[in-house]
Amino acid sequence: MTRQIHATITVEGEDARVAAYRERVNALLDAQSDARYLELHARGRLDYRIKGLGVPYPPFIAASNDFPDLVIQVSWDNPAGGESGRATIQAGRVAQQTADAVPARAASACEVRVERDGTLAFALASRRRRAGEWIGYVVTAMHHAFFRFARSGGHALLDASDGIEAEWAERWAIDSDRAEYRVLDLREPIETRLLEELDRVANDFAAEWIWFDETAPVETAVERQRYEAYGFAVSPANVRAGKIKTAMRQTEGGGFAFETADEEGREVVAIVARHWLAEARQ
Question: What is the DSSP code string of the chain?
Fold first, then answer.
C-alpha cells in the first residue's frame, strides 16, 4: 500500500520484555523518515499510533523475531480509501490478517476547553456507534479514558476505563437526573472490536489536537517553544498551540473553547463532563 493510513499497534506482555521490544522497534522506526508515531504506555502494555504511507508491518515483524513470546496486534484505517484492516504478528511473521470496508462516517461530537494559562480543562471526541450508543475518548491535563454511553428508554449507562487500559473500570447508572456511581470490583474487558474502534477515535483525536509531555522532547520541541512564548503551562496532556490560537474561540473568562456536535452529541458531551469529570477531579 502507498496510501496515507492511521495504524494502532498494541504490544502486551511482561514489562521488561515489552520495554526491550520497544527499544528495538523504535530504532527501526526512527530509520524510516516517513514514520510518525506516538507512544502510549500502561503496565505490561505499549500502544503505538502511527501515520504514514502503508501499513508499518516491517519494523514490528523484524523486531518480533527476537521476542517470539510477544503477540503484536495491528489495526489500521485508510479513511481516503474507505477500508480498514487487522493483523496479528508473532515470532517474526504475520499470523492473521483481514481487511474490511469502512462504513459511512457516523455522527460525531467534539468539545475542547482550555484555561487561560493553556491548561487542558476538558476535551472529548465521540461518535455514535449505533442508535442510542456513543463511544469516545475523554482527556484532561492529568487524566484520560475511553468511554461508552448507551441509552435504553429512560435508563442509561456510562462506562469508563482507567486510562487506556482495555477494560471498563467505572460505571454510572443514570435515570433522569439521578446517577448511581460505582467502581467495578471486577473490571470488565472491553470487547476486541470495540477496543479497536475506541483506539481509532482516540488516535485520530490525539493526532489532531493533543500533545503529551512524556513524548520525546525532539518530537514536541515546536509545541514546547510555542507554549513558552505564549506563557502557557505544560501539563502531562496539552492542546496543540496552533489549535488554541486558530480553531478555538476565546471565552469571557479568558480561556478557550471549541465544540461541534448535533443535539444528541451535545447531550452526550454534557453527561460525560458532568459525571466522569467530577470523579477525575477528585
Answer: --SEEEEEEEEES-HHHHHHHHHHHHHHHHT-TT-EEEEEEETTEEEEEEEEES--HHHHHHHHTT-TT-EEEEEEEETTTTEEEEEEEETTEEEEEEEEEPPPPPPEEEEEEE-TTS-EEEEEEEEEEETTEEEEEEE-SS-EEEEEEEEETTEEEEEEESBT-SEEEEEEEEETTEEEEEEEEEEEEPPHHHHHHHHHHHHHHHHHHEEETTS-HHHHHHHHHHHHHHTPPP-SEEE-HHHHHHTSEEPTTS-EEEEE--HHHHHHHHHHHHHHHHHHT-
